[in-house]
Sequence to fold (768 residues):
Amino acid sequence: MDMAMRRAASSAVRALTASSGVNSFNRHLSSAPESKKIVGVFYKANEYASKNPNFVGCVENALGIRDWLESQGHKYIVTDDKEGANCELEKHIPDLHVLITTPFHPAYVTAERIKRAKNLQLLLTAGIGSDHIDLKAAAEAGLTVAEVTGSNVVSVAEDELMRILILVRNFLPGYHQVINGDWNVAGIAYRAYDLEGKTVGTVGAGRIGRLLLQRLKPFNCNLLYHDRLKISPELEKETGAKFEEDLDKMLAKCDIIVVNTPLTEKTWGMFNKERISKLKKGVLIVNNARGAIMDTQAVADACASGHIAGYSGDVWYPQPAPKDHPWRYMPNQAMTPHISGTTIDAQLRYAAGVKDMLDRYFKGDDFPEQHYIVRKGELASQYR
Amino acid sequence: MDMAMRRAASSAVRALTASSGVNSFNRHLSSAPESKKIVGVFYKANEYASKNPNFVGCVENALGIRDWLESQGHKYIVTDDKEGANCELEKHIPDLHVLITTPFHPAYVTAERIKRAKNLQLLLTAGIGSDHIDLKAAAEAGLTVAEVTGSNVVSVAEDELMRILILVRNFLPGYHQVINGDWNVAGIAYRAYDLEGKTVGTVGAGRIGRLLLQRLKPFNCNLLYHDRLKISPELEKETGAKFEEDLDKMLAKCDIIVVNTPLTEKTWGMFNKERISKLKKGVLIVNNARGAIMDTQAVADACASGHIAGYSGDVWYPQPAPKDHPWRYMPNQAMTPHISGTTIDAQLRYAAGVKDMLDRYFKGDDFPEQHYIVRKGELASQYR
Fold:
């Protein structure tokens, strides 16, 4: 109680201090050389924080930029407490200048929060995927939203290929036999296949989708992709992937579907009961993009009926997945928490990317063009 | 009881019939156009046998060659009962001409069994890996031993890449969280890595090792291989893999070791306590070759200490793995029963290969050269 009181008090002091010297309506990125209040919302590592010196993506290690920020006179608050009116994040909304969030433990930046964040100028995503931010509201408020584009693409593409293989080769029933003291090759083999020769389609061929196609190439599959734009003729030739203009025509051909498209108003719930019913019976689906691209119950029902023979991914709606989320209990799932873009390698990349953007922000410099999600009131094309 | 009695009786009748017309000492492959007794030992599928029409590798579906064999007047006995003096296989040892076995449910063909199999001419392995056969004794007895070379190579190479990714990306702790109702990204992320940039070495670069190197290529790893012979300059260039003449020097460099060498007297127990102690701390090991290449307890101890950070494979010693096999209980294992070469696709390939060799045998024709393991008293080079 004492602690909470002190925290609330110091927060009120900070709010007072911050609002005194700063023009609350200056939402532009031309940052004066002054002390900024930066808040980061990450996942807590507890006993794991000290187990790996490169584990920078957690609250405790705070992207490894605390000393650097504080040596320049900035304030750096880090928390994992992001939900509800009394959470730690809420205390800093009124006076923070920069909010760093992550898709792995998303702090939802609603229109309402943006309205109250009078000093907010910059929203940085440590990782990729900024759909936990109300981008329209951010654009209207004149904020800048940026990600560390590219920081997770290799990680996620690798992870997708792992999940494809886990499903097509029926890995998990065998693993369960091992830990349960059983041995029944037939119980695995009757639905285990090679990846070779199967038709794999990616919905979306952005950076992750393209890296996946390159990694799939030596497996001698029939590769298809659907997107608004075709990939380069060179990459088409290198991967042998064929462009499919009509999404549903492509999906009906696929043994394995991989989702590589951002969550937007258009893709929200795109895999609903009707669309799933038109897929091949026994289709496998890998989705590391966003959980809400699926109709949760429709996926669970199709796994139960066997129409979907396997579903794997690391994204859920909502996140963290509640204990009673139906995907935890559906048959033939190979799910994990949201993890694919937060390997140690990816953490080091997005920590470096966030530091670089903060440095540019302090100096009033532009960011690398591809990092912008919202700039000068405009959404990046993939979010429109 | 009744059933067992009848079976024993009919077996005795068959033994009598068969031994009357055939020269017991004719061990050569020049097969006269006569009725042969062919015995197949496969795993039982029970309720799974009818779930997939292409599931031909089990006892019930018997490689899908029963009608073909019987229409030509041959006898075809199929069983999974292969151990002990009173097993079904034992009843047929005295008079069978051809024995078809599989590494997934190995019937051990000992010198003693070979001695008693007076009519035996041909040992066919449905799949790859004939170390369950006493090859020396088979050679001395003038038998022919052949596998369906190539039938499983794609399957096993794919499976190895899956296991590499499962270990390096730390998949299983995340999966356990999902099924246990938990959500703790940090508990996974602190030891999850990308495959990109890691040093991967294969011990053995035969057909499977080479296919693995090709599939690893787009992951941008540092690829090493050790074998008696170098791979072709073209393949070295294509994969970027570097030859390492000294096994232990290569192993000390590896973040990930993959075993792709057959089990021989030389490789039996090659990963013992001493060799493991010289590996990088935190090394990952994938072994789909043979369980006995590892010292079972040394691997379990190194997983417990963390020296080996992850171990995955589908091969055990012995097989089936007993309920108290230490690998079932060691930390950071991603094991399955022996499954990688018996996907539905692989089953169709090795069933077709066995049928083709039987057809050639009946006609007195040679097999494709690469299928021979023992021919005219000589072992194939990889088994010497």
Notes: The first helix of chain A runs from residue 2 to 21. The two ends of chain A are 45 Å apart (CA to CA). Residues 1-26 of chain A have pLDDT under 50 and may be disordered.
